[in-house]
Amino acid sequence: MAYNLIGKDFVPVDVTAKVTGRAKYAEDFRADGMVFCKSLTSPIPHAKIRRIDTSAALKIKGVLGILTADDVPQFPPPQPPILAKDEVFFVGEPILAVAAEAIEAIKIDFEQLPHVTDPLESLFPGGPDARSNGNVAGAQINLQTVKWEAGDFAAAGDDKLPLGKPAEQWSYGDLDAGFKAAKLVIEESFVSGGLAHHPMETRSAMAYWQGGKCILHGSNQSHTAAVPNIARLIGIKPEDLVLVAEFCGGGFGSKIPGYPNMAIAALLSKKINRPVMHRISRIEEYGIGSARPSFQGRVKLGFAADGKILAADLYIVQENGPHIGGGDFRAAGNALSILYQPSAMRWRAVPVLTNTPPVGPQRGPGENQLTPLIEPMIDKAARELGIDRFAIRRSNAPESSSKMGADQGPVTSAFQKEALDKGAEMFKWEEKKKKSGQRVGTKVTGVGIGQGYHSAGSNGFDGIVRITSDGKLHVHTGVGNLGTYSHSGTARVAAEVLNYAWDNVIIERGDSRRGLPWNSNQAGSLTASTQSRTMWVAALDAKQKLVEIAAQVLGGAPGDYDLGNEKVVSKADPSKSITYAQAAQKAVELGGKFSGKEAPKDINPVTVHGLGMIAGSGLIGVAKDNLPRVGVTPGLTTTFVELQLDVETGKIDILDMLCVADCGTVLHPQGLANQIRGGNVMGIGMAMFERHVYDPKLGLPANTLLYQSKPPTYLDVPAEIGWGAADKADPQNPVGVKGVGEPVQGSGAAAVTSAISDALGGHLFNRTPVSLDMILNFLSKRPQAHKPLQINTV
Amino acid sequence: MSDSDLRPTCEHHHEEGGGHDHRGPGRAELRASRRAFIKGVIASGVAVSSTGYLVLGRGTAHAQAAGAVGRLITLNVNGRDRPVDVLPNETLVHTLRYKLGLTGTKLGCDHSECGNCTVMLDDVATYSCSTLTHAVRGRKITTIEGIEGPNGELHKVQKAMVEELGPQCGFCTPGQVVSAVALLKQNPKPTVEEARRAMSGNICRCGAYDHYLRAVMRASREA
Question: Taking CB atoms and an 8 Å cutoff, what residues of chain B touch A27?
Fold first, then answer.
């Protein structure tokens, strides 16, 4: 389908503010009388708080106030608290906040408790628990104590993951028959190292109160979707929270629905009756800034002689941090199911609490831990079965008729075979694979292929568009601004439907006072697909109102009119028309549904609230996305890598990297390119550098600065990363769009681990990141510095 | 097309503001010693003033008690002489952000790691989080706010960043722009490899390096 705007590049409205420094992030705001506050955080990984003595601090001249757990809403564990009460669970956990220079004067009496940083240690009989009342919990998993049998550990030894009782499991197909029929069975235990999100903007927040409302300047990925949760944290109604979050300096999953320390600024401001800025330092960010959880896993894959996967058995132990943690363990099972289409599969998992900083979703949660470990195993199977490494992936790759997950449900579309084909062609796989293992001097070449998946679309949210009497189209969007430009990319769908010139479109976003609808989180690769749907339905509603008004003004029936060049034109007599500006003026006069004074019955209360702010100010299109969507909308990617590994130093140079996405219709090519390349850069970090390190004896973090945590720099990644798109429309999106921001990291990381393994003759490290030390130990036949299933190691 | 005016009605953006941060104890902040906890800042009084300010874990009250009062100096920032009251141990990023209202310069790590705070001193890219303000008296300081032309026209680096869609989240972008401008002043026609090395002090967690590099090379091709 030919579009005027969709699929074409444009200059997103907020780019100029970013390149000039005018873009204001949370900590760039000031308010009259504003004071800074600071948290006092836990210095030990697990302890009872016996007593907090603030008396000396409160006597200090100029101390404006102290906020403790007694001042803030309480939530049932293992939900993360705003401030720790009675018990602290990790180094860096906030206990109280002070609006004054008084932290040194506060005395806290701790009773240290046993702590644990390794889930297997906690699962061992008699092992330490991260909380005094349990060691296993997660979303939909109640806090409980789980200990495995000593026999489970003895049977596994040091090299294999013990297979004790899981907290959850599912299966489909005949697993035993699959393994029995398999020509080749590969079984490996593995570790995926946890890593920090470390967005460049730490999670600072500034808040004050005005007319009973809390005005909060926060750094958040999402906007309207986060408001109810942030209001809950503060203990107010959603309509009493004004969230100002026009820019967000990176989140990667750590700033989706708001987070507890936003409430500190809000509640301390209320307590001392002054605006409060809670600035978070880089080191504090490593405590409260979320992380991707480590996996300790085991997988068994049964292959037919032709490479088809007949059976897969996956077990994930997740290092879940001290609170509710993330659902990565579940997503990993789905990823294995969809990407490799095993005929039979079992998934088992247990999320274990640890006295390490809270974990949560990070770009491709679960999926992106898994594929960098699985893809080298797929290579191993290809080598042993004598099949091309590309061909084995292609034959197992999903199609639109494929099923996935526990219930073997449908997908809306899957064009992974097309993405693989395009990637192989662009990368010149047939030529490149001949270089595999070639050595020149000290450098040996490896080539690899990785794949990624994330569920990348949702539905059921609302859209609002408004045409004002100056003829402009205001697109109201409640998604955040994470830097994907989907706020503008999806707004172009509304402009497309209404035949608007892009210059006449104004995007209303970033501030609760701007009449924003209920929209999805800017997370989960959701916004491109989900918001193109809401924009579509809202624009169609506006279109209907435009033709109805034309019929009222010019006579005839609404069906006699169509949309022209920002005017409504009679189909029979093109000389009969009214401009959008005139129609908007008429809508204001007519009121009712035309100007948003009457709202559809099925829209979310948040949308009703937003609509109330703009009702009567133009012709308003407002609707809930009731378009059908059946099945999971998968974002799928594949990355190809050629690298050189120096066998004397272990250093790796990535010579070529190319990623192709199956993300449906391309909405915004340049934005897609930036997402693909950026995700692959993060994938390089995950595959080679980034990991958590904790002292297992003291529970202290050893990487709380960037040089220790090692996000990739310019010099760690290729100067250019190639990209492409399968560009096949998803039939269940009005413009064919699917999301893709997340799987690009996983396929990038997996292509790197696949290529490293290839350079080393197919050696499986079964661990990410593959550090330089690990490579050198392998090459010099020395034992690795860590036990096979040890986590949080250097 | 334009973004709507999001300016809240109730705020006043002070040229001078209270602030705090620390360059202090590093990792020890998270460790056992309570001494290592960063002190909060006091900012009492009618409004937050330039003296309600903290560096190196020292708040005004504390600092004044220790006799460490600020000193009025003049800085040349973006071509203008700016009088400002500066504590002895104050870093340039704090002076810029909290006293001169120049919030385009970002504070990403405060440990000379990320480059978000990059400014130019006499046309050389410098981390302002690790530069003492007193040490730059008499130097020509250029922040991101001073990169545009006199009539607000974008610098060729900024134009190229827009054209190549350099930024994602945008938080590191001011530092990337300043580093690129400094590079092209020293080396107007860099190779990609030279540009990559010159820019390597600026971390972008979004991983937009490819797009930023394209922008640098595009700008270098402009006259």
Answer: 103, 107
